[in-house]
Amino acid sequence: MGRAMGLVGLLLGLVLVPAVLVSTSLRHGAPRTEAGPGPAPADWELAADAVSEDSLWPLPQWLRTSPRQLQLAPGRFQLVHGAGSSARPGCGLLQDAFRRYYEYMFGHSRRRRWGRRPLAARAEPELSELQVVIEAPDPGCDSFPHLGSSEAYHLTVTEPVAILKAYEVWGALRGLETFSQLVHEDDYGSFLVNESEINDFPRFAHRGILLDTSRHYLPLKSILTNLDAMAFNKFNVFHWHIVDDQSFPYQSIYFPELSDKGAYSCNLIYTPADVRLVIEYARLRGIRVIPEFDTPGHTQSWGKGQKDLLTPCYDGGQPTGSFGPVNPILNTTYDFMTKFFKEISSVFPDAYIHLGGDEVDFSCWKSNPEVKEFMKKQGFGSDYAKLESYYIQNILDIVSSYNKGQIIWQEVFDHKAQLKPDTVVQVWMANSYAHELSSVTGAGFPAVLAAPWYLDYISYGQDWKKYYRVEPLDFPGSEEQKKLLIGGEACLWGEFVDATNLTPRLWPRASAVGERLWSSRNVTDLQDAYRRLRNHRCRMLRRGIAAEPVFVGYCAHEGRRP
Amino acid sequence: MGRAMGLVGLLLGLVLVPAVLVSTSLRHGAPRTEAGPGPAPADWELAADAVSEDSLWPLPQWLRTSPRQLQLAPGRFQLVHGAGSSARPGCGLLQDAFRRYYEYMFGHSRRRRWGRRPLAARAEPELSELQVVIEAPDPGCDSFPHLGSSEAYHLTVTEPVAILKAYEVWGALRGLETFSQLVHEDDYGSFLVNESEINDFPRFAHRGILLDTSRHYLPLKSILTNLDAMAFNKFNVFHWHIVDDQSFPYQSIYFPELSDKGAYSCNLIYTPADVRLVIEYARLRGIRVIPEFDTPGHTQSWGKGQKDLLTPCYDGGQPTGSFGPVNPILNTTYDFMTKFFKEISSVFPDAYIHLGGDEVDFSCWKSNPEVKEFMKKQGFGSDYAKLESYYIQNILDIVSSYNKGQIIWQEVFDHKAQLKPDTVVQVWMANSYAHELSSVTGAGFPAVLAAPWYLDYISYGQDWKKYYRVEPLDFPGSEEQKKLLIGGEACLWGEFVDATNLTPRLWPRASAVGERLWSSRNVTDLQDAYRRLRNHRCRMLRRGIAAEPVFVGYCAHEGRRP
Fold first, then answer.
1. Which of the residues A219, B149, B190, B488 could staple to B449 if both were Cys, CB 3.0 to 4.6 A apart?
2. Contact call for residues A211 and A237 (beta carbons, < 8 A)
3. pTM, whole model, 2 decimals?
């Protein structure tokens, strides 16, 4: 990310000042009503989403807003390509984004207010358009976002036009989100924006949400809705934990039996068309889709549709009929994996595949006489972590041969598998994750932090604060090591989550992680975050995301006549 | 409840045998597939709602099912008034219930399957109708359910007709729910029911759900949806915590300023028409609506629309501009309350009103010189609990004068207010609630238990088991005292709950409380409950309640082609 920011900073010729300092000095205090003698002064008497300056989420790296307001006329206001932009009206990605953000800004109240009152009745000058300028020679309209993509942007809102500059379309998407957050509707139904200047870029390049479609199947619509919410929070990685022990909903082209037998039902699957749709929907929002096919553990559902893939377990010299992890001693296993990952590498365009490797239970391997024989032959002694590493290295080699990068859970590193230099290690064990980050980056591997952000663990109250307080770089290590932490992920494992509760359980709790991964390190004021998060949650609700409330109160739009 | 049961048992001439013994011996074991060597044998490989005998919730007091199956033809099957019933086709309550339960049983797949295959293709004999017989001279079609209503019923399902007998319509509603739970759809789309006999009645007469519409406004639709869910779980009391500090959404006829000024917004209110609708919707499902108007604390929102109602707080001899609890020393307070509760008594038909009385903060009263003077005059010394009791007793007298019974939170009892003999004390403090139940019933007051069932406190995993394990009668006391525990309530306070997350947060967790309050004391098998609860949750989902999953897996209907 350092690179991307430097580049755009240079291109835009800006001096970057931490947002938190500038914005605080300019932000109006929110109006307060009297509070009772009971608990602390209560924010609940305010409708959330009432104060526009307090509604940016995640907070940009640098911003300056002026009290001077401009008015937008929904019937006239336009999102357009600016002069000098390398993007043309043929850029589907931007055209789609223009339409989308126009709707977010004005759509909800179009029927209600348009034309009711002439714009001239107000004193404010008008903002007539937002010009979007892509500066790179190739804007990237048809490309996929990747780890090195630039998401930086520079936004100026002044009369009569606002200008959004970005090196690539990915930065423009982030800037459009920010611009839409600046526009607010006053009590009279006028759309206003304060004159502002924003320079922004992400702190971390990898900002992910993990959804688990194996413990419960998630309908396509739930996934798409959450991609919308991710874009509202500037997340850029959808980590799709697509299969696991419980079910195999991924419909394979080469091995259709995997989902025929391994899915919960023949209808609870993701067809190739579904997968393409998810990938394209995500791409249009600047989101990478990284699929996880976790082996050799967590594979019970694979075994149903692929004979001899799993290890037969033994008891007292006899097979029990049960199966353990993937059988690592058979050539047929690797033949299967070679073909399977060839398909996965071609279906998923991202440069990375997540290969899992967590929580391998050795007991079945230990019980199997052929596996024991193999261990002896290989000289592994009784160290089954070596067998695990042997398997994983074979898989890593297979996937590398398709020119894909790899992400693995931390055990693979812990068990000393020989990893390719750029393999990303995802740290998930809550116990001493700082130490683990230190080890992983100390060994020169890029790391992604998930441990403190397991959002399936719920508790009473405002637990978003717990997620918000995490400082990812608080681990022992050199500057070089810190640079190897490429980001983090909020994980919503699916044991207790399906379409009924996914969205309110994930949002706005994941928003706390979103700001931690995007905004400057010194954006840590909980009171300020609380105010902005409430507004942000109301905005998500207005945009169709059933994000749960942060605390007591209501959203201004809920109080308006429908 | 003892009375109602004895009456119906007598009328029906039945010997009552605990359900858990009979049903277990007859229930088929669920089929199992092989499980991995990892954690315990996994129920997740089964689709929930696949096995009909395992789908009753709450478990009836006595049931016998036979393996013999009868088939229902949706195009012919009828719910009708049986011979000898005092109810006639003009009984709107039953007609509405017939229509509703017909839809629950067949509606979801009507378009899909009807007429596709002639019924004759199957070997099973047909069940042609369910005859409902109300035995009381007055069936109660136009009445309201009350604490003494009979909810007992007797159901026989044999070829060619099923017969549901109940003394009152309330029992018929419960029996219709049970009958609808027996009917299941097989893989071929046939509707089947096992020949069965069920005798059932509630263990406790008061089985409530508390919803809080002050911390967050709940749209009417959310409330109605949850009344549906309550009926599916045989709950019979909607405890409507309608106003509190944060907002006053109840639109009063006499005092419209209360919601004009005290609601979050002029649109976030319950109009008289809304309230009537909720009451009627609940009545049609055999659910009482008990409104709570909590005073003298928790009243900040009241003060906005009613001048001089709250106590002005002082600091250093000067009013601070803040206000405390209701001012208990002014005649105008009691004039207001007299008129206000006259309205409430007439708007809400239930024989009880909940008057709150919890968590009164004395600090403002202590600061106010006029209150101090009043204390002296009354000889209360510095015991502000006496002032609280003085106020509450006045309110109790007012409400009594309208012939309404009263429910209060436990502090009112703890602070030794002089209560009318039939005042119901609701026990909510989690700390030693058994001891409190003992004291309350020892003093001769009926009690309602809420303490172990605060469902707003969430935690990871299957916390329904915690609610399920509670045995309400596990408190020290005589048989007479035990009889005074009239029931319990699952409470979903609204600090972190609104329409976005209410339903999945409440259901099926509250179902655990529902069974505890309805079924026999010895229905405590967690494994059996788990299996039934999963099926019940799937049924709720099918009926439009977004109940969250109990654990990993899926519902059979989710796997069917839409």
1. B488
2. no
3. 0.91
CA B297 to chain centre: 25
Read off the pLDDT of residues A119-138 as tens digits, 9 standing for 90 and up. Answer: 545 678 999 999 999 999 99
For all residues of chain B together, what is the average pLDDT?
Answer: 90
Q: Three-state SS for B468? A: helix
State yes or no: pLDDT of B142 exceeds 80: yes
What is the longest distance spanned by two Cα atoms in chain A?
Answer: 89
What DSSP designation does A126 have? Answer: B
Best residue of B187, B558, B560 to probe chain A, by most A CBs closer than 10 Å: B558
Instruction: Say how far apart CA B69 and CA B191 lie, in whole Å.
Output: 10
Which tokens go with B104? 């629950």
Domains of chain B: 62-108+123-200 (3.30.379.10), 206-543 (3.20.20.80)
Measured CA to CA, the distance from residue A145 to residue A285 in angstroms comes to: 9
Name the strand (E) or helix (H) holding A525: none
Quick one: three-class SS letters along A3-70?
HHHHHHHHHHCCCCCCHHHHHHHHCCCCCCCCCCCCCCCCHHHCEECCCHHHCCCCCCCEEEEEEEEE
E-strand ranges in B299-452 read 310-315, 318-326, 352-354, 405-409, 424-427, 447-449
Q: Which of B259, B21, B60 is nearest to B151 (CA)?
A: B60
Q: What is the pLDDT of residues B379-413, one digit of tens each?
A: 999 999 999 999 999 999 999 999 999 999 999 99
Confidence of residue B561 (pLDDT cuts 50, 70, 90): low
Residue whose entry in the numeric block shows the structure tokens 């406190």: B457
B454 CB near a chain A CB, below 8 Å?
no
Q: Which residue of A has its CA nearest to B44?
A: A246
Pick the closest to residue B59 from B400, B523, B467, B430 (CA basis).
Answer: B523
- Candidates B459, B496, B556; nearest CB to A548: B496
Phi-psi category of residue B364: left, alpha or beta, with phi > 0 → left and psi -120 to 50 → alpha: alpha
Residue A48's pLDDT is what?
Answer: 44
B105-127: per-residue pLDDT in tens?
A: 998 655 445 444 555 556 789 99
User: Which tokens go with B432?
Assistant: 């030693």
